[in-house]
Design goal:
The two termini are 21 Å apart. Helix 6 links the parallel strand 13 and strand 14 (217-220). Strands 3, 6, 7, 10, 11, 18 and 19 form a seven-stranded mixed sheet that branches. The protein has a six-stranded parallel sheet with strand order 14-13-12-15-16-17, with helices on both faces. Strands 1-2 form a two-stranded antiparallel sheet. 28% of the residues lie in helices and 27% in strands. By secondary structure, it is of the alpha/beta class. The chain folds into two domains: 3-151 and 318-347, Medium-chain alcohol dehydrogenases, catalytic domain (Quinone Oxidoreductase, Chain A, domain 1, Alpha-Beta Complex); 158-292, NAD(P)-binding Rossmann-like Domain (Rossmann fold, 3-Layer(aba) Sandwich).
């Protein structure tokens, strides 16, 4: 039996690396040698709090995090076509049933029976090798790195958000939250041809990164009244499209006030609070449209094409990289360093 190394959370705020069985490629599947895994906000919630939204880790057992990964095909199983050993790939982490009404309608992100990496009880991909269905392995062009491949997943969330918000050429966009998903939403909105982009956050390093990636105006909510600043920047018109990407009750409440008349509000961030006070008088008075985002659908090929063409510089969101042996340090840094960490990735090999 061949073995590999895998990293697991043991309780909260503790990571252990142990030997586990290395997989073999079954029919219609491949084995991917994982080279990079991103640390997502949901991973941080699970690691530090044991839960994210409606999902909770069974803390009596070791649990593997990680769902943003890129790697190289190491083995192909019987019946695999279109992929060969040595191909670089990005893995879409949700394996759906293909038979429910949502899958058949093309809205497979809403499949009730999805198996999604690192969403309890499904184990993640913080390991050296993973067996995976060929349909969810997307080949990367030769000039893209597997590090960029690992970032296709969060980029897909941002692209789905821009699609849900129906961002158009010249739109004034407000993004509340400049974490990884706020930044990928910014990149996607820019690729859609939007006009002015205003980004708010509480962390200067994130705002600096937003500015670097194309924001026209950045606002630190600690230092100003965000809504009044948006009003001033837009000459009182406010935003055509508002995206909430932080999952904070404060920014969720701000969304209808940042939106102009007839605007669209898109809720992207996942809040740990199931019930949040919301001003529906603003919604009704302005005839706002409210959209929401749950992961993404039918995005991976487009996201890869956008990065490959240079239309989106997704590698620009990464601020920290750690090797696999220091994965505990990586997660601790993601939990505790709110000063300058925006996006961390793990270099597995």
């Amino acid at each position: 039996m061949e073995m590999q190394r895998g990293a697991f959370m043991r309780g909260t705020d503790k990571m252990v690396i142990k030997d586990i069985e290395k997989p073999k490629a079954g029919k219609g599947k491949v084995v991917v040698s994982i080279e990079y895994v991103g640390i997502c906000g949901s991973d941080v919630h699970y690691y530090h709090s044991g839960r994210c939204g409606a999902y909770e880790v069974d803390l009596s057992q070791d649990f593997m995090l990680g769902h943003e990964c890129g790697g190289v095909i190491a083995e192909v199983g019987e019946g695999v076509t279109g992929l060969k050993v040595g191909d670089k790939v990005a893995l879409e982490p949700g394996i759906t049933c293909g038979n429910c009404e949502f899958c058949k309608a093309g809205k497979y992100n809403l499949c009730p029976d999805v198996i999604f990496l690192a969403t309890p009880p499904v184990q993640g991909c913080n390991m050296e090798f993973i067996e995976y269905p060929q349909e969810y392995c997307f080949k990367l062009p030769e000039h893209l790195s597997t590090r960029e491949g690992a970032l296709i997943e969060p980029l897909s969330v941002g692209m789905h958000a821009a699609n849900q918000g129906n961002v158009g050429v010249g739109d004034t966009v407000v993004i509340l939250g400049a974490g990884c998903i706020g930044l990928t939403t910014l990149l996607a909105c820019r690729a859609h041809g939007c006009g002015t982009v205003i980004v708010s956050d509480l962390v200067d390093a994130r705002l600096d990164k937003a500015k670097e990636l194309g924001a026209d105006h950045v606002l630190n909510g600690k230092n100003c009244d965000v809504i009044e600043e948006i009003r001033r920047i837009t000459g009182g018109r406010l935003a055509d499209k508002v995206f909430e990407t932080a999952g904070s009750p404060v920014t969720i409440r701000q969304t209808p006030f940042a939106a102009g008349r007839g605007a669209t509000v898109t809720l992207v961030g996942i809040s740990v609070q199931p019930e949040i006070e919301f001003n529906f008088a603003q919604v009704m008075d302005k005839e706002l449209s409210i959209q929401s985002v749950f992961r993404y659908r039918n995005i991976y090929p487009r996201a890869i094409a956008a990065v490959a063409s240079g239309a989106v510089n997704v590698k620009g969101i990464v601020t920290h990289e750690f090797d696999f042996d220091h994965i505990q340090d990586a997660y601790d840094e993601a939990v505790n360093n709110k000063t300058d960490l925006v996006k961390a990735v793990i270099k597995v090999k």
